[in-house]
Design goal:
- This protein has 191 residues and is α/β, with parallel strands linked by helices.
- The protein has one domain: Aconitase, domain 4, CATH 3.20.19.10.
- It has 8 helices and 7 strands, in the order βααβαβαβαβββααα.
- A hairpin with a 4-residue loop joins β5 and β6.
- The radius of gyration is 18 Å and the shape is globular.
- 32% of the residues are buried.
Amino acid sequence: MTAIKTLRSRTVVLPSTNIDTDQIMPARFLTTTTREGLGAHLFADWRYDAAGAPNPDFVLNRPEAKGCQVLVAGRNIGCGSSREHAPWGLVDYGFRAVISTEIADIFRNNSLKNGLLPVIVDGQTHEWLLANPGAEVTIDLESCTLTLPTGTAVKFPIDAFARYCLMNGVDELGYLLSKDAEIRAYEQRRA
């Protein structure tokens, strides 16, 4: 995982509410156990037509979406089934953070474990973001602050351990492996 400390990016806005994990990553693409290449299938049923051609009206197919690392979604993103492929696809596409007023618990936890920062904001901030697609925002994970181009800064909640892992670019296993010497020393003392 790549560490996230400060993220500055333009936003892509997908204002739909109740975006479930099957819309993020359709079930037919769940046959892989690797993360690579899943970005091509992200929002596949919205992003491509029946023949597989890009839908020019879908936000990710527009030129202004290129290079954006922050997705602003409508209320309740990530509901539905539990699948890590959804955050895998978002990260593989290039997103590092998703912002909404409501992010489903399992999706939020899967995101945190896979290098995608879920940012929950208040209704007023969310409305501003929805109304201003392409706005450049700054997310500071150290202070847990999202700053809008207007200068408005809002705090967002995040679990301390997940924050540590994201800031250091490690997952849970990586964290445990980093403690190998301490674990061995403890085991030797107890033997």
